[in-house]
Amino acid sequence: MTAKPNSQPSKREKPVSISGAKLVVRHLEAQGVRHVFGVPGAKIDRVYDALIDSRIQTVVCRHEQNAAFIAQGIGRLTGKAGVCLVTSGPGTTNLVTGFATATSEGSPVVGLGGVVPRAVRLKQTHQSLDTATIFRSVAKYSAEVESEEAIGETLANAFRAAESFRPGAAFVGLPSDVMQAAVPAAVLTPVAPVRLGPGPSEAIVEAARLLAKAKRPVLLLGMLASEPRAALAIRALLQAAPLPVVTTFQATGILTHELLPLFGGRVGLFHNQPADQLLDAADLVLTIGYDPIEYDQDAWNKGHNRNIVHIDAVPCEIAATYKPAIEIIGDIADSISLMAAGLHSLSRTNPAIGSVIDEMAMIRKQGAKAIGMPVHPLRLVADLQAVVADDVTLCLDMGSFHIWIARYLQVFRPRQMLISNGQQTLGVALPWAIAACLVRPGDKVISISGDGGFHFSSAELETAVRLKCNFVHIVWRDGFYDMVRFQEELKYGRSSGVAFGPIDTVRFAESMGARGFAIERAEDFAPTLRKAMELSGPVLIDVPVDYSHNKALGQQLLPQALI
Ligand code: HE3
């Protein structure tokens, strides 16, 4: 067959081809990703290989779950998705807990997982799993790339979903043959998450009217109120219209020192706090960025017949105990700024308010006097309070210790104290400390866990040593999963399945090249902490803790029951 004159090869340049893996890496670079965290394997090694030639730092972790926690920490601290990169099968399923935690707690994360070649995708073959389906219930977005052409679109949409309000996790499965294939080198330019405007002005005007009419209004700040712009808008609103405020554990640090007279305390877990009393007495509750996963509505709104005003970026989930009179859905900061303009110096004082701060301080003061061993939790809180200045990021694991800290330690910067109050996931603290060191290099970082939770992610201490992270990790040691133990005792009068054996934390730390200190006298904790904060590299402090008062945390209590 003779070629027709017009079928000559085109003079136009063919687009340059690169491997699918290289294209993935270029997309990550275009998204501004600086680190990826994970464990490699045969189905994803092409992407690991491509990372060698990029400016992105590959951080090999000891477990994919921890990679997801580090990525979540980065997402929570920066608002930009942290990224983890794992292999097929178990490598991918190991992300599930991290993803559930991130999505529940509004932290953006993107996970990239290897997938078997498309040709054997439906066969019972080594490490083959329907990962996109697995992630659908714990992620905002979950898809496998089905053709070379779809790489860019899938990644762009995954980042978008992860970073748009309410942020959460997004998963993208990358079949190994797609990563091998030659694809055009074009990168789909990232599109910034959609910026909403304020909620409808009629709703804002009506909410301001209800607020002005209310005699005992209370603001309940939730986790997304701690988004930096939202926090600034809330501060401005409170300066213009001083109103009583309570916060969830996730929303710590929104109030400045000057706004403390409005602070009514924190809620979370048990309905027995001064902040619960304030909420009980309120005739209107204005919630901002609140998600019931932080503190169930049944715990604070059951049986109440009062107006709820809900300000958020997404519509609330209606519940029998949560039916807002008004929902203001839009950009939280913009909605609040607009509302502040309409409040005309509204001010509501509440006699119960001023005493909360004094009570917190008084309880810490009492605790500071505790000299016995093991150390009283309030002594540790008081000693921590002395070093937790505004340039310290505090990463908390889950356990009884977090209740003491969340109730009695004061911080003044949003997202300064990270807590997993959505899923209450053990093992987050140390990975979050790694994240904080990477993205807040100017901060001092302290992470804290119980002796149970610590070993959910303790192998990552080696990663921290490798990365030369400067943080102090404190292990509150009591030999039990106490947060479950004391609640079982409250419920059943005895406990089951909560004891474990000892591990020498100091030698454990030293075996990985970290420093370790064991506290033997209560008065040694504060100087050891201060010294540890001056040292380079991760430092572990093991402190035996006296949990004999913990049941009081779950009971209706008088402050003196704590000491
Ligand atoms: C009560 C929570 O659910 C808690 N978190 C968990 N997270 C995971 C991933 N799996 C199981 C649980 C159940 N939980 C347990 C057992 C907790 C106790 C934590 O014990 P420690 O020793 O870390 O701290 P402390 O002794 O201070 O409670 S939290």
Sum this structure up briefly.
With 563 residues, the protein is α/β, with parallel strands linked by helices.
Secondary structure elements and their pairing?
Layout: E1 17-19, H1 20-30, E2 35-39, H2 45-51, E3 57-60, H3 64-78, E4 82-86, H4 90-93, H5 96-104, E5 109-115, H6 131-136, E6 141-144, H7 151-163, E7 169-175, H8 176-180, E8 182-184, H9 201-213, E9 217-221, H10 228-240, E10 245-248, E11 263-267, H11 274-281, E12 284-288, H12 297-301, E13 307-312, E14 326-329, H13 332-341, H14 354-368, H15 377-387, E15 392-396, H16 400-408, E16 417-418, H17 429-439, E17 444-450, H18 454-457, H19 460-466, E18 471-477, H20 482-492, H21 505-511, E19 515-518, H22 525-534, E20 539-544
Parallel strand pairs: 2-3, 2-4, 4-5, 5-7, 6-7, 9-10, 9-12, 10-11, 12-13, 13-14, 15-16, 15-17, 17-18, 18-20, 19-20
Antiparallel strand pairs: 1-8
Helix pairs in contact: 1-2, 1-7, 3-5, 3-17, 9-13, 10-13, 14-15, 15-22
2-hydroxyethyl dihydrothiachrome diphosphate binds next to helix 16, strand 17 and helix 20.
